[in-house]
Amino acid sequence: MILSGRVLCAPMAGISTPPYRALARRFGAAVVYTEMVSSHGLAYNSKKTRELLDFGEDQRPLGVQLFGADPEIMRRAAEIVTLLRPDLIDLNFGCPVKKVVRKNGGAAVLKDLGLTRELVAATLSATDIPVTVKLRSGWDETTKIFAEAGKICEEAGASAITLHARTRSGLFEGHACWDDIRRLKETVSIPVIGNGDVRSGEDAARMLETTGCDAVMIGRAAVGYPWIFREVNGYLETGVSPQVPTLEEKTAVILEHARALIKMIGEPRAMLQMRRHVAWYTRGWPGVSRIRQRAFKMVAYTDLENLLDDYREGKFLPANPSSGEE
Q1: Can you give the pLDDT at residue 323?
Q2: 158 assigned to some structural domain
């Protein structure tokens, strides 16, 4: 698989839906991923789990991210995914969420490197699609085993490794330890993708330079701001970030996102999801607290259209601009 760039869009539960992925690809993400998919749910034919595998050609290159802790179940899940022909299968050994780790999945796999090897090998035995792995640095600061885990994944046949340079106990707090990415890159010969605290083109360039990693992955900074992929790619190519999107471009994308969700899941469910997305899209906008109050009452697409029209007309701005209200 030949990538069009060095900036990937991280998979995020509840966010990485097909409309979100399509926008990320359009704005320059070299790879997008499904939400994290339960291997157990696939193997036992969960309808809700199967729905997470829906994707369109506008989302390629696309990776399906699987999690689980049973090699045989992972093998069966990989067989199912292979029939859909995504561009890669990614194994999640980094998710810190309790409901995942209490079932020995996600970052909990790092407690048993023998199991780590078995899961990668089982997946590869069932597919001809490239298999990659996403790791955290370790379970906690006293058990940073990313280098050993990375070597095991490489030996088992993984094509690339993404390292979110925090431990499981660190969740998403504090600063990512980019030195862990550098050390992993020095340990393995397969490509390493760095993840953690990349919020701008300058951040991406610094991570690439200081760690030697082959690409960067952006997660939270892209939520509500898919333009970050365009900006980062532009900075990496020219040293200058492209112009930020205009209000008209932002509102057009918000409406496009909503229409795509409505087409996928129907208006009632889509507008419930868009309440959160509008809150993310409008971060930093003047009058944002008023926008969100109204956004969380939306039930129809016309509510969103009217909200954005009113914003463009200045109806959410504070009556007294010097009041400091957001």
Answers
A1: 47
A2: yes
Neighbours of 248 (CB within 10 A): 9
Last residue of a domain, one of 220, 238, 256: 238
**Residue 213 designated active-site:** no
Q: Following DSSP, what letter does each residue of 136-165 receive, concatenated?
A: EEESSTT-B-HHHHHHHHHHHT-SEEEEEE
Dist CA 213 CA 160 (whole Å): 11
Query: Is residue 262 within 8 Å of 301, Cβ to Cβ?
Result: yes
Is the residue at 2 inside a domain? no
- Indicate whether 160 and 226 sit together in one domain: yes
284-305 confidence digits (pLDDT tens): 999 899 999 999 999 999 999 9
Give every residue of the chain whose pLDDT is below 50, as ranges.
323-326
**CA atoms within 13 Å, Cβ hemisphere of 124:** 17
Same domain for 200 and 295, yes or no, is no
Residue with tokens 């109050």: 293
Q: Which two tokens stand for residue 262?
A: 């409505």
Shared domain for 14 and 99, answered yes or no, is yes
> How many domains does the chain contain in total?
2
pLDDT at 110: 81
Domain of residue 269 covers 247-323
Catalytic option among 95, 153, 177, 213: 95
Q: What percent of the chain has pLDDT over 90?
A: 79
- Residues in contact with 17: Cβ distance below 8 Å, sequence separation at least 6, in sequence order: 35, 261, 264, 273
Q: What is the CA radius of gyration of the chain?
A: 20
Tell me: do 162 and 275 sit in the same domain.
Answer: no
At residue 71, the 3 state secondary structure works out as helix
Give the CB-side neighbour count of residue 240, counting CA atoms within 13 A: 3
CA distance 300 to 298: 6
Instruction: Give the CATH number of the domain where residue 263 resides.
Output: 1.10.1200
Residue-level pLDDT at 67: 92
